[in-house]
Amino acid sequence: MNKIICLFFILFFSAIYAQKSDTLVLKNNDVIIGEIKSMNKGILQIETDYSKDDFKLEWKHVKNISSTRTHIITLSSGALLNGTISKSKTPNKCEIKDIETQTKTEVSLTDIVYIKPVDDSFWDRLDASFDVGIKLTKAENLQQLTINANLGYTAKRWFATGTYKQIQSVQDDSDPIRRIDTDLSYVHLLAKDYFIPLSVTTLSNTEQDIALRIISKAGYGKYILHDNKKYWGVASGLSFNHERYTGVSDANKSLELFLGTDFNLYDLGDFSIQSKVTVFPSLTENKRVRTDFNLDTKYDLPLDFFIKLSFVYNYDNKPKNNAPKDDYVFQTTFGWKLD
């Protein structure tokens, strides 16, 4: 009986250890044993038995890494690898063993820009954030509410995001102001840092008399820069614009070309900056051009809280219904993220 009990405890603790078998060696020779959750944008997240919350550390401080679990790994060259990770005899490098071909590839740690375990659960692959801003003034009884919600899901070869942004303002002796933006996007990753973007976005904006604008996009893109400090991607394709203006019963439909760029800088300590610019020259409306610009600056706080400064600008050189050609929103919000 005692032998059976001993065998039980050996198997039990062996199973626990197997679940926490990922090992990190830092450049100061500290060793961390746990379960790697992800490495993205230069930040590695690992769960350990001796910490209530996951550790988050900068990838540039890691000297060695090993894991018997299968991971999706992206290199700065755009190569996509699927396998286990083991230490290399060469400093600041590791070996990745492909689970299908069983071949080993030695790569530099600085060339790795993304790591994600394949056996992650649904919740491990989910990212979410929510922030809100409120402004109340006695003068002219101004009441303003800003809401932003973001949801993301990352799989082996693709990721999807959904966003909802609303700003609403009420003031004495002035018409109410309301603007609602939504975005549902899907990006399929290809070899050599190419990707296929698909998205559906909507806009409702009282400033430009837009009751509802729906834009469906499909294209092809590439990451020009992709490392642990920044990424820069460009994309082009076709979009279909279906819009209806306030006070106008008939909807306006047009086919457009889109040219977009997305730049994200995140090696700034607790700061991160992301900017997006998309130009829509119309293919069916003579000389009509629209432009959308977004800039988000975020400062991370303890306990996954953050402060965000955002700027959004829309331009249309040929608006309908004699509406203004442009509109912009500048906002400061406080929020919380789940990752």
UniProtKB/TrEMBL annotation:
<protein>
    <recommendedName>
        <fullName>Salt-induced outer membrane protein YdiY</fullName>
    </recommendedName>
</protein>
<keyword id="KW-0732">Signal</keyword>
<feature type="signal peptide">
    <location>
        <begin position="1"/>
        <end position="18"/>
    </location>
</feature>
<dbReference type="InterPro" id="IPR007433">
    <property type="entry name" value="DUF481"/>
</dbReference>
<dbReference type="Pfam" id="PF04338">
    <property type="entry name" value="DUF481"/>
</dbReference>
